[in-house]
Design goal:
There is one protein chain. With 177 residues, the protein is mainly α. The protein has one domain (27-167). The protein contains 7 helices and no strands. The chain has helices at residues 2-15, 23-64, 67-73, 78-107, 111-134, 138-161, 164-167. The two termini are 36 Å apart.
Amino acid sequence: MSRVKQLETLIENWLKPLPHLPNDIQKWIANNVWWITLVAAFGSAIATLMALSGIFAYMSFVGNASNYVGFYAVSSYATGWIWSAVVSLAFLAISTVLLSKAVTPLKEHRRWGWDLMFIILLIGAAQAFLSAVFSFSFFEFIFGVIFSALGLTISAWLLFGIRSYFVKSVKTNNTKQ
């Protein structure tokens, strides 16, 4: 976890010179990120099931095709495609679980919720890199890296824009007994 904190500090330093969102927008995002995360978790769960069924459908098609038809019907990188799909599915499943775990802490403005979202961002970076590598194409690799970097930068900028609402939110229990 110390490496994650070091990475958090590094990314925070990279994003410091960039312009920040207005305070009203930051507050709105911080107060509503929990239900946005809930919708994203639900959508990710559906996407995970769809991707799993797509992989099984593809494998059954390839397994049932005769050698002659299968040669023309399937990609020449069928094994690479399967590995890429399985790796993406694994990352999607992990992200779905973490998204669903982050909903309650985000609703309560706890630091743990923001940390989970940061870990999901790091998982997205790893997934983007591995997807680009598994593309087995120079142009797909370049465009995958460029557009993934752009998306991850925007996501990190938004996430670090609301960080102050979660970092200082240590709740104390002052209940009278």
